Amino acid sequence: MTLSELMSHLRCAVLRDTALPQLWTDSELLRYLNDAESLFCRRTHCITDDTSDFTTFDTVVGQDTYTLDKRIIAIDEAGIVLNPDEEHASYHPLRDNTRGQQLVTFRSGRPVCFTLQARSNAIRFSPVPDDVYKVTMVVARKPLRRLVHEKDQPEIAEEYQLALCDYAAWKALTNNDPEGANMSVGTNFQASRLLAIRDAKRDLRRTRSGPYPQARANWTGKRLRY
Questions:
Q1: DSSP readout, 116-130?
Q2: What count of Cα atoms within 13 Å lies in the side-chain half-sphere of residue 35?
């Protein structure tokens, strides 16, 4: 759907804001739609990317930590490409030690694992790079461009795009509700949006789990030792 179609659906079919003067300006609703797409991507990791310029970089000798682009939400895969300019280039995947609570090491060598640092939005390699290595990543990211023009289209899949209108309606109603009359209606739109996020996460998990999905333990602490 284009931005023009989303705005028309939001104003006419959802908010019923067709009488003049209108209750909400186009710029206000546009801001809510852009915020909705960014939050949807953050909650579902529905946009993956390995071709943008911020998904590859070269390491620096003796530097273990590198700041990531602010549009990156999570790293699904990372690896080092050896001899990238030669015919026999090789790819070496890096182990994700973020949940393993990896200790800082000052040993130098070719990195074999990485740790994400959420507070500083950075990635840290271990061992510390002893040479210039080409790092390539598959990341979950936010949209690259905001919706501005009428023919602009959201980057998320079309089956989830109406959920953006639910979020925008919820924000519009609750932010313009001095007497609380629209609170229950806004809550319904928020519930519909959360259901769409749940369904999107379930669909994406099913797609990425392959032909033989496995149940994973819901453990977020340190690795168990046997």
A1: EETTTTEEEEESEES
A2: 13
Structure confidence by residue, pLDDT tens digits, 63-110 = 999 999 999 999 999 999 998 887 788 999 999 888 765 555 668 899
Indicate left, alpha or beta for 155 from its phi (over 0: left) and psi (-120 to 50: alpha): alpha
Q: Which helix (H) or strand (E) holds 194?
A: helix 183-208
Report the chain's terminal Cα–Cα distance, integer Å.
52
Residue 115 bridge partners (DSSP): 124
DSSP bridge partners of 117: 122
**Is omega for the bond preceding 21 within 30 degrees of 0, making it cis?**
yes
Q: What is the DSSP letter of 119?
A: T
The residue written with tokens 């946009």 in the block is: 47
Quote the CA–CA distance of 134 and 58 in Å, as a whole number. Answer: 5
The structure's pTM equals 0.81
Q: Quickly count: other Cβ atoms within 10 Å of residue 72's Cβ.
A: 19
43 by DSSP, 3-state: which?
A: helix
DSSP state of 13: I
Return the DSSP state at 200: H
